[in-house]
């Protein structure tokens, strides 16, 4: 079984694969030693670790080099958070993902928020048609096995108290369209309402990815909604960095 196949097979609704997101080769090796079944990077973690902001501030060549080193450090399949693909045009995005695939990565996250709008008051998303065209171009370019985890930012850019059935239905519409375009999975970061999560997981014909965060529902309850993947986003790196800073403060204060 190839790494592509073994990674895809880990996505079982109700028995989700757990991805404790890493940021470099060293953290990937630590996750592997800890018992990870696969490795996934988090874009914010990678960017912060290299001294850059999130939202594609990390230069593409550095992102690709980090992916290559991470892949080479472990025996496990590695998926890379590739944000918006470092381009808008479908062909340009596909060419960049082809470069990512050449690093040995078996898949990536690919978001539908317009990356240029990150950090602004009015964060916007690509239309369903435009994002579907981008996904289709990637699929045509990298072939059938690359695990393209299509991320929707519907819930991430809206506060949790606004999440409702209408928003879930909008996400479902995107999930179905992305599936038709060739996506392998559907990622709904920011969604923590278990009833809405179950609604999405049942309606979208793709393995659904939940992002864990401090204060989120526990993994067992999340699994019962039918999700097939639980990732941890930037939070492992944030915790590691805090532990480092706390230890440094103790030394300097001593």
UniProtKB/TrEMBL annotation:
- Please give the start and end residues of each transmembrane region: none
What would be one Pfam family of this protein?
PEP_mutase
Q: Name one GO molecular function term.
A: lyase activity
Key words, A-Z: Lyase
Looking up InterPro entries in the UniProt record yields: ICL/PEPM, Pyrv/PenolPyrv_kinase-like_dom, Pyrv_kinase-like_dom_sf
PANTHER family in UniProt: CARBOXYPHOSPHONOENOLPYRUVATE PHOSPHONOMUTASE-LIKE PROTEIN (AFU_ORTHOLOGUE AFUA_5G07230) (PTHR42905:SF16), PHOSPHOENOLPYRUVATE CARBOXYLASE (PTHR42905)
Record's protein name: 2-methylisocitrate lyase-like PEP mutase family enzyme
User: What lineage is this protein's organism placed in?
Assistant: Bacteria, Pseudomonadati, Pseudomonadota, Alphaproteobacteria, Sphingomonadales
